[in-house]
Design a protein that fits this description.
A hairpin with a 5-residue loop joins strand 11 and strand 12. With 406 residues, the chain is of the alpha+beta class. The protein folds into 3 domains: 238 residues, no CATH class; 85 residues, Transcriptional regulatory protein pf0864 domain like (Alpha-Beta Plaits); 55 residues, Ubiquitin-like (UB roll) (Roll), CATH 3.10.20. Strands 2-3-8-9-1-4-7 form a 7-stranded mixed sheet. It has a 4-stranded antiparallel sheet with strand order 11-12-10-13. Strands 14-15-16 form a 3-stranded antiparallel sheet, sandwiched between helices.
Length: 406
């Protein structure tokens, strides 16, 4: 399993993360092509090799055509930018998750809601490119797991849109909840809100390098400071042994996993009753809704007036996706009205690992509650593919995979 371990002894920011991935072998041509797919403008990309206290690193920066001018975007605005780009569904979903995490932190700090918060510095073109670029780079390089340790934030004060704030900034502190870090002795903002959000969403664990990790390539992403220490983030690209489900159950969780307990999230359910629509279109509608980031979509058979058979189309989504969900439903179905209501979801921590069966590898979904594994489910599609390839009964592959999870 391919993994990356970040050492943040001199901080982590979005542009430093991208720089490290470019230094690790991410194609500059592919990266520029990805950025061009984003519906944003008014910038130039600066990519170059630089020395930092004798260490060669890759410096990446988004230079705005009009320095200092940044639009104040809401989360919904950023979601529209990301969903409009020709990127993989996984890149879109993980990028939106990072911005949503940022919005939640900012909303808590300012005492408002996620849908009302507007981004200042982290809503600009540079932040969008940094975050989407990081997620794209990890996927392109085939990195399945991200770990980080030795995180230093810096100390002192920084001037921003809200005035003079302490380092780490309030939003950064919110994002670092449950993550070990130190201030260090550098009087600069080393760990930015963008960097903290990327770590909070993408990392599977924090602290020492994960057990069994074998480093194969070292890369460095440069920051913009000239300090007494190298202002770089070090990225070790390597491999981890494939875990066994039995070992995971015996441990409760992998040694490098971060246990945050239950995730509680405010969401929306949008619903409409439909009795005059070709049922063939529902499959297409569901696909479109999942593509933009809906968490779940389902159909419920109902009886309407005059005993007409009908269905209720229900969508579970974040508040920021409300407009996009309604747009798709109105465009693709015959409905003339959509109702919505707020819900509170409590979810166990979920992650995916890979186990080895006699016929090959199978992904398993692992759910944890208060540090203990409560559910391990083999991936059906993987089991089916192995059954077809090796000409063995599907129920046998499922049974063996299930037994491994017990």
């Amino acid at each position: 399993m391919k993994a990356i371990y970040l050492s943040g002894f001199s901080g982590v920011s979005g542009n430093m993360f991208v720089g490290a991935l470019l230094d690790a072998g991410l194609s500059e041509e592919a990266f520029r092509g990805m950025v061009a797919a984003l519906p944003v403008s008014g910038y130039q990309l600066n990519i170059k090799k630089v020395p930092k206290c004798g260490i060669g690193a890759t410096y990446f920066d988004v230079e705005l055509d009009r320095a200092g001018h940044q639009p104040h975007r809401h989360l919904a605005d950023i979601v529209k930018i990301i969903t409009a780009a020709k990127l993989s569904d996984s890149v879109k979903a993980r990028s939106i998750a990072v911005f949503t995490k940022l919005a939640e932190a900012e909303a808590k700090v300012h005492g408002t809601t996620v849908e009302k918060i507007h981004f200042h510095e982290v809503g600009g073109v540079d932040a969008v490119i940094d975050i989407v670029g990081t997620v794209f780079g990890l996927e392109t390089l085939g990195v399945e797991k991200v770990y980080a340790g030795n995180l230093r934030t810096g100390h002192g004060f920084i001037k921003c849109a809200h005035g003079t704030l302490p380092i780490p900034a309030p939003a950064t502190v919110e994002l670092l909840a449950g993550i070990p870090y130190t201030h260090g002795d550098v009087e600069k903002e080393l760990l930015t809100p963008t960097g903290a959000a990327l770590l909070a969403v993408l990392c599977a664990g924090f602290g020492d390098r994960p057990t069994g990790f074998i480093s194969e390539k070292i890369a460095y992403g440069a920051g913009g400071w000239d300090l007494d220490i190298p202002n770089v983030v070090r990225a070790e690209i390597g491999s981890l042994p494939l875990p066994s489900v039995v070992a995971l159950q015996e441990q409760g969780l992998s040694r490098c996993a971060r246990v945050q307990g239950l995730e509680k999230t405010d969401l929306l359910v949008l619903e409409t009753n439909i009795d005059d629509c070709n049922p063939q279109i529902f499959d297409y509608v569901m696909e479109r809704l999942f593509e933009i980031g809906a968490l779940d979509v389902w159909l419920t058979p109902i009886q309407m007036k005059k005993n007409r058979p009908a269905v209720t189309l229900s969508v579970l989504a974040s508040v920021a996706l409300q407009d996009e969900v309604e747009k798709i439903i109105f465009a693709e179905t015959t409905t003339i009205g959509i109702r919505r209501y707020s819900v509170r979801r409590t979810a166990a921590e979920r992650r995916e690992e890979t186990v080895e069966t006699p016929w090959g590898f199978v992904r398993v979904k692992i759910s944890s509650l208060n540090g203990a594994i409560c559910s391990v489910t083999p991936e059906y599609d993987d089991c089916r593919k192995l059954a077809e390839t090796h000409n063995v009964p599907l129920k046998e592959v499922l049974s063996v995979s299930q037994n491994l999870s017990r």
